[in-house]
Amino acid sequence: MKHANIALFVPHLGCRHQCSFCDQRSITGTAGVPSAAEIEKAVQIAAGSENYDPKSCQIAFFGGSFTAIDRKLMLKLLQAAYRYVLDGTVSGIRVSTRPDAIDDAVLDVLKAHGVQAIELGAQSMCDDVLHKNKRGHTAQDVENACAKIKRYGFELGLQMMTGLYGDTDEKAVYTAREIIRLQADTVRIYPTVVLKNTPLFALYQRGDYRPQTVEEAIELGAKLLQLFLKAGVKVIRFGLHTVEPDSFVAGAFHPCLAERAYSRLYRRVINAAATNLPHGAYRLLVCPADLSRAIGYKRENIAFFKEQGLDFAVCPDAGIKPYDVKILGKG
Ligand code: SF4
User: How far is the CA of 274 from the centre of ligand 1 (A)?
Assistant: First the structure.
């Protein structure tokens, strides 16, 4: 059974910062704090859905800086959610927060209220990028928070962004390697988008910031996905689910961004397998579930290799693992 989240957004609450890129309200589309009644309603809707599995479902407080909000309010939200952990309706709770809002006291509270996973918005492991984007924390803060979260036995999730102001592909790769070194269990990768009324928007308007194109985000994303895949870090999100059209100005947002990045990852895998292959027609065996990813968005992988003189007929083969391929002569 696939993991599922009952997602509740806690926008901007408790956040003393204004990160260059952030307008939480535009990203979440929610302006208020969830009430106990709203939490109950969300749980009931999820629990009443077909194939609902309590063992694989968590209540997730996303969006803001959960452990930085007013402590009484944080406790209220946790208590409202924890009753569903206690009665077995969900398996646990996950929260997302800032690296500098983690200490032993808060981890004790989370542990006592059924929290299983903590996701930290690391965004970058390069101090100059963090500083330029007004994150208000350092890479060392991320490292310290990760060590504590691991010591308490929580599942550790890290979120990183690409294409931030002052960021480069090399710095993003470094960030990914640091995330692997810090032993994250999961990672979310978000290419930056420019939203109205953010500091990044002002930089963009002045011509001081150029956002990644969709193509650049896909190309870099494929490289990062490959690193995490090799290291066994589970990528649970690539790209924003949605942005409000009224707020979106520019940047790497595309409804199929994740699919396209995974397809590009396949292109890297095929490319490596096809090194020194003479021009000609071949059968490319791939894991059946990944057939469309191997072929590529609008068949772009097929077209890419055709231009290099390699004519691939992509065939499903149950013996091939995901992100592996086998090339055979066409005969
Ligand atoms: S810390 Fe999080 S919620 Fe606060 S401004 Fe930055 S990204 Fe937004």
Answer: 44
Mutate-to-test residue for ligand 1 from 16, 17, 95, highest number of ligand atoms within 8 A of CB: 17
CATH code, domain with 97: 3.20.20.70
Are 283 and 146 in a shared domain? Answer: no
What is the CA(207)–ligand 1 centre distance, in A? 24
* pLDDT averaged per 10 residues, the chain (length 331): 82 74 60 85 93 94 86 93 96 96 97 98 98 97 98 98 98 98 98 96 98 98 98 97 91 96 98 96 98 97 97 98 94 60
Q: Separation of 80 CA from ligand 1 center, angstroms?
A: 24
Residue 71 CA to residue 206 CA, distance in Å, equals: 40
Number of compact structural domains in the chain: 2
Residue 240 has a CB neighbour count (10 Å cut-off) of 18
Cα–Cα distance measured from residue 180 to residue 173, given in angstroms and rounded to the nearest whole number: 11
Tell which atom from ligand 1 comes closest to the C-alpha of 63.
3
